[in-house]
Amino acid sequence: MKPVLLWSDALIFMLVVALILFFYKLREDPQTRERWGQVFSSRLGMVAFTVILTYVGVALLDSMHFRKALENPEGLQTEEIFYDNQVTSALDVMLQGMGDRFERTYSSPFALISFEKTNMKDAQGNSTRDYPALLHAGTHLADPSDQIGDVMAKTLVALLWGLLISAALIGPQWLLLRHSSSPWHATWGVQLMVICFFTWLVSISHHYHVLGTDKGGADVAYQSLKGIRTGVLLGTLSTLIMLPIAVTLGVMAGYFKGWVDDLVQYLYTTLSSIPGILLIAASVLLFQVYIDLNPDFFSIGMEKADARFIALCFILGVTSWSTLCRLIRAETLKISQLGYVQAAHAFGVSHTRIITRHILPNVIHIILITFVLDFSALVLAEAVLSYIGVGIDPSMGSWGNMINGARSELSREPAIWWTLSGAFFFMFVLVLAANLFSDLVRDAFDPRTASRRSEA
Amino acid sequence: MLSYIIRRLLYAIPILIGVNLLTFTLFFVVNSPEDMAVSQLGEKYVTPEAIEKWKVKNGYDKPLFLNDEAGGLGAVTETIFFNKSLKLFAFDFGRSESGRDITTDVSNRMWPSLAVALPTFAIGIWVNICVALMVVMFHGTKLDRWAVLVFVSLMSISYLFYIIGGQYLVAKTWKLVPVSGFHPDGQVWRFLILPVLVGVVAGIGSGARWYRTLFLEEANQDYVRTARAKGASEVSILFTHILPNAMIPILTGVVVLVPALFMGSLLIESFFGIPGLGSYMLDAIKSQDFAIVRSMVFIGSILYILGLILTDISYTWADPRVRLN
Fold first, then answer.
1. Cβ distance A449 to A39 under 8 Å?
2. A213 contacts A205 by C-beta, under 8 angstroms
3. pLDDT (tens digit per residue) in B128-186
4. CB distance B160–A387 less than 8 Å?
């Protein structure tokens, strides 16, 4: 085993550490604590947050990459270890080979036979045309008609295991937090469902394809799970790249005014007047030309796809800072008129100190709201960009690529609906949770809605 | 007001120059014409002669900014910057990399785009405002809370699924309208119904939620409380007090989009096979035709700036207190 650290892996782990430190620091501020308390005092907030954390957890597991050591062929006497060209992740290990069970082509969920007929030879050597049996589905069944009973029995066993694991994980939380006033029972419910679902999925995937297989015969449920990392990383990394640009320019424009303000305003008006999708498409295409012309930079295929992915995050970040910049500029303009900033000026406090001590802490809520709001928009944008052909590299699993590959298959007879459903379900749950959570965060942190609530 | 508009138009010039410089940098400096030639010709046929031939054919054989060889005015005009970027200001878009005249293409394809985008836009606004007003009427009840949840759920569905689902249900299963296509005479509406319907339904979630927030912000103002105290009915409060006063924020969000309707919708047009500007852009992106992308970027920025000016003008119409100076 040899660990592989892709650029996007390094970035996401750095981001996680930064976020934890950031919230650890914020913890000391009583006002922030009160606002977070408000977000988590609602059951909806707890549920949405648990769902988001689950997705982030899966994404992080999927970001721990390594290359498996290959067993040396027999008779070869050497100390050198050879590594697999395929990159495996911790998630793949946990899914116990779900992604390695390929079929020939399409097969519907829980099917035992393929979706398309092929030419086969029977025992007597006669050529027939029939639906071939799947390689990895129901091979343990003596009689195909036992399938329903078998699925039921396996589900029951898996659920029992799920309950057992949940008890081990949720039990300690219950012991610690049962007297807390926050609605912890909501997150325990979600945790229970998530754990049971995953144990069921992993154990039943040994014997069936829960969501069928796609054109290339890959397991759809596995692909949908792999799409989680792409979606989560794109949503966070792009915002991470956008934030420093928007905050620096916005604060500078609002604080220094004059020609700095004119320049920043000119920059963001120019940028936002260009149709966003064209700018993104053009930049991605240009980067693609660069990758194609310099193939020597990347040692394994995964690194190439990863480079394109990071470029996409970068491009999305660089082209989307204008909205946040405008908001921060306006807020900074307002704050720098206030008495305490004027007083700081009068005392001769330096610009950097005024900005870091008085301005930045007061625009944090805008940054936070934008971060959560943009996340869901970016996850949705990924699907559209992949459809246009300027999104994620096709070799890297993503929901957009799944939709793109399956969009015309609904017109078949019978329709192939499972690939689209898989992508739809996993994407919808993430975006919905993020949207609901961002609503709550905005309600708690936006002074306008906060004042309205206190009046009511 | 006229002087204001003229001032705004003049202010647009530096922005357009900025757009131009940015696209120029992207297309010619970051990515040299050689790179483009290589990727357009494909790996197999790359010889120095072929690259040179491609550059001459497409007009990329000149220097970027200054041509020392050509004397006099030619030093400025015989350059890529002048020919490919500055000529856009005269609406001279030149030829696409496959040799078609871009100006003709754009003027032909504008109308199908508009035929889809305009009804979608108008009906969309009408439906969203109606739904939002209805929800605001029930503000504070369970119905309101459920409606918001439904809006957020609708928002969380990717646009692609609305299109795919719409085509599957309405066109394939119920066979009410053709799945896709466009025919410019007679029965054109048959091809327009589904794209417009999909566009409107896909917009309800975010649209109605946004209008609801706007209306609620007005509903908390003092004048509404006064009106209620005077005994005005809820319906008249909604229509004669809240709606007119919410006009300014509505116009801010809506008018800026009007000129951009000419550009059409990338996704709708490509899924429904409508020969508009949206599918034109998509084809250009897919075939890496940078000449078209450049022209469309320029047209898009002009329309956006036009939208900003129209927004300002619409304020004077919606709110008599606003004077443009």
1. no
2. no
3. 999 999 999 888 889 998 999 999 999 999 999 999 999 888 888 888 888 787 876 66
4. yes
Using a CB-CB distance cutoff of 8 angstroms, which residues of chain B are in contact with residue A270? 15, 18-19, 22, 301
- Whole-prediction pTM value? 0.90
* pLDDT tens track for B42-72: 666 677 777 777 777 767 777 766 666 666 6
Alpha-carbon distance of B194 to B192, in angstroms, equals 6
Contacts of A243 (CB under 8 A, 6+ apart): A324, A367, A371
Q: Is there a contact between B296 and A269 if contact means CB atoms under 8 Å apart?
A: no
Residues of chain A positioned with their CB less than 8 A from the CB of B300: 273-275, 278
Give A239 to chain B, closest Cα distance, Å. Answer: 19
- Check if the beta carbon of residue B69 is closer than 8 Å to that of residue B61: no
Q: B116, B114, B113, B120: which is closest to B276 by C-alpha?
A: B113
| Better-scored residue on pLDDT, A95 or A162 | A162
Name the packing angle between helices A360-388 and A399-406 (round to 10°).
30
Q: What residues of B are in contact with residue A45 (Cβ under 8 Å)?
A: none
> Residue A251's pLDDT band (boundaries 50, 70, 90)?
very high
B201 close contact with A: CB closer than 8 A: no
The rounded distance, in Å, linking the Cα atoms of A286 and A283 is 5
Q: Is A410 on the interface with B (CB under 8 A)?
A: yes
The H-assigned helical ranges of chain B are: 2-24, 33-41, 48-58, 74-77, 80, 102-137, 142-155, 159-166, 188-219, 222-229, 234-236, 243-245, 247-254, 266-272, 277-286, 290-318
Residues 6+ apart with CB under 8 A from B36: A289, B60, B290
The model's pLDDT over B245-272, given as tens digits with 9 standing for 90+, comes to 888 888 888 988 888 888 888 889 988 8
**With 60 as the cut, is the pLDDT of residue A456 above it?**
no
Query: Which of B139, B160, B281 has the highest number of chain A CBs within 10 A, making it the mutation to test binding with A?
Result: B160
For the segment B99-120, the average pLDDT, to the nearest whole number, is 89
Taking an 8 Å cut-off on Cβ atoms, the answer to whether A277 and B172 are in contact is no
CB contacts, 8 Å: B301 with chain A: 270, 273-275
DSSP secondary structure letters along B231-251: T--HHHIIIIIIHHHTHHHHH
Q: Which residues of B touch A283 (CB under 8 A)?
A: 26
Chain position carrying tokens 């917009």: B203
Q: Are B20 and B298 in contact (CB under 8 A)?
A: yes
Q: Which CA distances in Å does A413 have to A117, A222, B162?
A: 14, 25, 21
CA distance B66 to B318: 50
Distance CA B138, CA B235 (A): 11
The DSSP symbol for B126 reads: H
| Measured distance CA(A86)–CA(A185) in Å, rounded | 41
CA A288 – CA A296 distance, rounded (Å): 14
pLDDT computed for residue B72 by the predictor = 65
Q: Is B152 on the interface with A (CB under 8 A)?
A: yes
Q: What is the ipTM of this complex?
A: 0.87
Q: Is A156 helix (H, G, I), strand (E, B) or coil?
A: helix
Shortest distance between the Cα of B51 and any Cα of chain A, in A, equals: 15
| Cβ–Cβ < 8 Å for B145, A42 | no
For residue B22, the one-letter residue type is L
In chain B, what residues touch A439 (CB-CB under 8 Å)? 152
Residues making up chain A, counted from first to last: 456
Q: Is the pLDDT of residue B73 over 70?
A: no
- Closest Cα in chain B to A283: B26
Q: Quick check: A398 contacting B, CB < 8 Å?
A: no
The owner of tokens 């490509």 is B270
Cα–Cα distance, A147 to A140 (Å, whole number): 10
Q: What is the mean pLDDT of chain B?
A: 84
